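Researcher: Structure for this, please.
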Amino acid sequence: MNEFLIDKQQVRRSFSRAAKSYDAAAVLQREVCQRMLERLDYIRLQPTRVLDVGSGTGWGTRQLTAKYADAQVISLDIALGMLQLSRGQTSWWRKLLSPPPAVCADVEALPFAANSFEMVWSNLALQWCNDLPATIVDLHRILKPDGLLMFSTFGPDTLKELRRAFHGVDEHTHLNRFADMHDVGDMLSHGGFAEPVMDMEYLTLTYDDVRGVLYDLKAIGAHNATAGRGQGLMGKQAWARLVENYEQQRRDGKLPATYEVIYGHAWKVPPRMTKDGAAIIQTSFKLK
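Model: Predicted structure, token format:
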């Protein structure tokens, strides 16, 4: 058994339950979304259909709708509770005149025809994929030629302090494994995208105690959904060991929680054709 395999039913339940507490706790998620939105100012594209993958409570979807006023922006999320809350936050006149389209589905099983969108947008959702290379191929499929994929995800150093703190506490897995930026860039190239551009930054949140770190993760629905997770509550001895390990990393009176945020964008370029009608596909990988 792959102990790091993500249980999608658990993911769906966790995020649905966290819908009401998500916006208050999702400080980092909103900051990353804002930084992605700023990058759109340098991209010349006026899409008519946009897919927001992992739309959550819809904050990013609403920003995309405002930016591309003439486009249809479709929300997609694995958690029905998130989509229901997002629908409830839409203004009454928009719901009356043009109800925002929303699809409850897993990004690893996209229910869309090929060449459906000019843009696919995903803020901090792809880290929940079990087969990221296959997911990237499918995202390429649903994009129209000259369409854009723009996304953010987490890299291997994400929550490194918490990962260290859990080391030796018990035999269970406690955190997801995250793909390296260079590997994600290679996946894009192998998945058919042209000239993927990748970059990365570290963002660190600080807390007074370990409970604060875990509370924020629970409030946004980011529970441990790995197959190797423990099935019961953590015992007193394990908890004390976790706290002791994390306390050793206290800096300037605070406990850090580091996130390695990976940004990427890539285009679906129409294939060049030879004289006899064969397709020529050229890809390259650029690191900012």
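Researcher: Any notable elements?
Model: The chain is about 35% helix and 25% strand. The domain at 8-157+178-203+260-287 is CATH 3.40.50.150 (Rossmann fold).
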